[in-house]
Amino acid sequence: YARHAQLARAVRAAVGQWDLEILCANPAEYSSTATTIVVPRDVDSDEVLRIADQRFRLSLGAGLGKLQGRVFRIGHLGSLNELEVCATIAGAELALHAAGVPIRFGAGVAACEHLFAQPAVHC
């Protein structure tokens, strides 16, 4: 559980550097399962997903129901480690940029690295 929470914190730190919103408005209710990221109104999140998959072979989660086209999700569970999270964040940055979101390359990855450079959480 501690590892999933740590990976989740890193993803949320990356999103903060992208100047995008996390769908969950209350940080006390953030999930260690997945982070849902809101894209700008003029961007279709399904296009972000298509680019991530086709150009970078990166699988991100789609928005469901009324959130389809407005959000995408990054999961933090399973056999996932710090380097895989950094790679996922880098791929998401590339896909967001290609879809027209103004991303400062490396900002999210750097946020993850800073968090992961802190003393390890024992799992």
Helix proportion range: 40-55%
Proportion in β-strands: 5-15%
- Which overall shape is indicated by the principal axes computed on the Cα atoms? globular
Helix run count: 4
Q: Which consecutive residue ranges, at least 5 long each, have pLDDT under 50?
A: none
* Class per helix and strand makeup: alpha+beta
Overall average residue pLDDT: 94
Give the total of beta strands: 4
Helix-strand sequence: HEEHEEHH
The radius of gyration is 14 Å
Measured between the Cα atoms of the first and last residue, the distance is: 7 Å
Q: Major sheet: order of its strands?
A: 1-2-4-3
What's the story with the biggest beta sheet? 4 strands, antiparallel
